[in-house]
Amino acid sequence: MPGTRAETINYLMGWIAECSEGVLWCSGLAGTGKSSLVGTLHEHLTVNGGRNRLGAFVRYDRTEYNQASRLIASIAYSLGMFDPRIGNTVALAMQRNRSVTGLSASSALQQFDLLLRRPLEAVSDLATEGPIVVIIDGLDESDITREVLALLFLGFGPRLPFMRLLIFSRPVENILQSFRLADQTTVSRLALDSSTEQSEYVRRDIKYFISTKFDEIYEVQLPDTTFKNICEERHVVEELASRASGLFIWAATVCKFISNWPSVKKLDALLDISIPKDAIQSVTDLYRTALDTIVSELESDDVKECILRVLGAVTVAQTPPGLTADLLDALVLTPGYDPSAQYVLEKLGSVVQSDKESGDFIRLIHKSFDHFLTDPSRCGERWFINIEDHKNKFARQCLSCLTNFLADWVPPKSANTFKKYHDNIPCHIQDYALFAPLWYIEWFNNGDFNDLRILFEDQLSLWLQLVSTAGKHHALLNEMAEVRLWADCLKDRARDCSFLPLVYHACQHAELESLQ
What residues does the Nephrocystin 3-like N-terminal domain cover (predicted)? Predict the structure, then answer.
């Protein structure tokens, strides 16, 4: 929100302007606003500054992109796109050392030297043209190795004093350990959740955020000022800000929770939360209160079960490509028996959100909510999402949806009717269930053998005809190739998997079909 985090942004911009050959680790728990800071910093470096100084930006997300094996190559590529002079020297380095991008993590120092240090040193004019910034966001969400972590905390070195490396992450053990082992003269840390003067600015900004959002709630309710008067009498803004523990996600969730349906009951539930001892306790109490309040407003316990199913599906199936309300209706909920997904999502409005830019896919509001739901010591038995159980349950639901459709589907008999049959394939089948058993093959277990046999043997020919009618045969071959690699890996590790022969049979049959 404009008007917040000004001191922190000023500190970061000052560090970029004045630091030499350094690394800045910006750490904070989930919900402390790291991603928002990165977004604002990105804007300052690329738009507001008048001259783009952001040489490379790498963002990790455990649900979408978490592979750090190509981190150094990605930074080199971005720097090459940022400045053609750097691009030319990187390209020359790759021509001389064609195997450099395939080096293992244990050779990270050699890769760094060949793709970054030497090419940057070769462009001597860079030293007088101002800082070049490299940002890595969400490093804790990646599978980064100890060797690469140690290399990152070395920075770009004294011969490249114009380079700046900023790392944003949670203070997880492997990153914290690498930071402690690093040379503290060249590495700085900005802890967003520390009890320093910085936290005073954060508390002030959170209070400002809540106040602004509540003003918007009051405005919607005009001319009725009853809710506003109650809030002001009870100093609600101040009371809520005191419970946030420096977490912007806490403030954002609270405001969303209230704005969906402003009521004194919701206020009472929030104000009954004791001032927490730390940030983790703060979000734990908030999420429990929000979910318990949602359930207390429902007329049926069955809806609570639907809420758990929706939360479980959204948690495990965020990629690919994610779930929409329509997909939840078709794959997770039972039409005519369960309430609609839209109804459930409206109830969960304070803790889930849809990504309008990428097709209305449903996402949990924040990683901290994901962590809460999957930690039974925090969420309790009532709200615990057992990841392995929900993965298997969702995979079985997708498989059942596809096999049930195939049981009634009649393939086109001639080319003249092909388009008609294509148009009559439901969206949830064509866009999701058609390949879902392949996407989630590793979520099945030996107990699912008979169900998988229906698709991979009994309905295999019909399934391939459906894929062809949908115009997705090439996509199927790509998915089958991924599944075959998975099966080979499982076989090499001597893992017991009774349905592997079914997988190989389906892959071979699909490949033969493509040759005809």
Answer: 15-170
Phi, psi of 302 (to 5 degrees): -65, -35
pLDDT tens digits, one per residue of 459-484: 999 999 999 899 898 889 889 888 88
34-53 burial by CB neighbour count: b if 16+ within 10 A, else e? bbebbebbbebbeeeeeeeb
CB 26 within 8 Å of CB 1: no
Q: Is 16 exposed, middle or buried (0-12, 13-18, 19+ CB in 10 A)?
A: buried
User: Which tokens go with 464?
Assistant: 């391939």
Q: 36: helix, coil or strand?
A: helix
Structure tokens at 248: 């912007």
Running DSSP on this structure, what letter comes out for residue 125? G
Q: What is the pLDDT of residue 320?
A: 62
> Which CATH number applies to 6-194: 3.40.50.2300, 3.40.50.1100, 3.30.565.10, 3.40.50.300?
3.40.50.300
Distance CA 362, CA 359 (A): 9
**Which helix (DSSP H) or strand (DSSP E) does residue 24 occupy?**
strand 23-27
What residues pair up with 169 in beta bridges, in sequence order?
27
d(CA 108, CA 476): 36
Cis check: omega of the bond before 158, within 30 degrees of 0: no
* Backbone CA torsion sign across 360, 361, 367, 370: positive
pLDDT band per the 50, 70, 90 thresholds, residue 514: low
C-alpha distances in Å from residue 187, one per residue of 86, 150, 191: 25, 12, 13
pTM of the predicted protein model = 0.74
Collect all residues with Cβ–Cβ distance below 8 Å to 51 and sequence separation of at least 6.
Answer: 130
Per-residue b or e along 214-228, where b marks 16 or more CB atoms closer than 10 Å to that residue's CB: beeebeeeeeeeebb
**Alpha helices by DSSP H, 107-196:** 108-112, 118-122, 146-152, 173-181
The secondary structure element, H or E, covering residue 331 is helix 325-331
